[in-house]
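Researcher: Go.
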Amino acid sequence: MEAVISKILKVRPDLTREQVFQLIERKRVEAGNLLNPEGAAFLVASELGVKLWDKNLSTGMKIKDLAPGLRSASLTGRILAVGKAKTFSRPGGREGKLVKLVLGDSTGMVEVYLWDGRAEEAERMGVSQGLPVRVEQAYTRRGLSGRIELHLAEKGSLTILDESEASEIPPLESFFSKPSRLEGLREANIRGVVSKVSQVKSFPRPSGEGKVLRVRILDGEDEATLVFWDEKVEEVSGIKPGDLVEVVNGKIREDPLGGWEIHVRKSSYVRVKPSYAPPPTPVEAKPTPIGGLQPGVRGVTVEGYLVETPSLKEVTLRDGSKVKVAEFLLRDETGSVRVSAWREVGEILSRLPSGLKVRLKGVTVKEGFAGGVEIATTSGTTVEVIPIGEAEG
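Model: Structure:
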């Protein structure tokens, strides 16, 4: 920001340094504190007629070419997500408006901020996911997250293109990853049909109550777990099996079993299409004898007697988060196996007495630390208590 201020003072010697700071702070307040000081300084310079950079770019540029400080950036791309319009009050009572969207091309993605008149114009045009568009006369800055942002204010424009003009823009489907292809990614876009919705869990935080919701989705034969946090839990309230859910800018984390979870946070975009498909019908898998379990197999059903009452404890994962896990031995007539039951499943099993016969559906088999195999539950595991008569039979 210091370079911008120095440039303003050089071009406008009639202004003092203190006056420039006051203009920057006023501009930041006018934007409802949605701009950082660097972005506010850029707007002040622009309004004062101070030319900061000679970077006027054509519509031929790509998202990967964006850099902070561009004042006339133009490019084409496809809309991947559209956020809800936000209104805020400026000094004097004037209302401001902001609409954010995510734009993608063959080189990457960028978040676009549409301010005031551009936001209202986008709403009138019916801007929506999947449309190819041209952005012109936008400016760029580095956001609080460290990413490059594209901003459209009074001088900028957003034009919807015909598909015949968008031959170089990839189709919408290509921007979404398959659950089986998440390894090595830090962030991803993903979509799938909901197969299971867990209960919302609340937990204390220094700043107040936190919430988390786990949702299992299917994309063809691939499965994934979406983990919604805090306000995103409220955003998908009412989600149910059979709904289609799409997440843009989800954070990828490894689960305790070496699989992957997609965490949906404040910076993520979510879209739910209700009753998109018939709710997936669970496939009744025949229980695998414990003595026949093989490592590396997912979605297994096992049943047996609880040799001991499962003990529940809290562990810390690699990312620093804390979760509960119950460990116990499960036995049938072919052998016994150690079970690690995570989160809600572990809490349920920890309340069951030893000697009870249970059926665990949808577990993962892995190699044990001391040889042999172990099994672990997943977010898709279900627990069934086998009635005494059936157990004895």
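Model: The radius of gyration is 27 Å.
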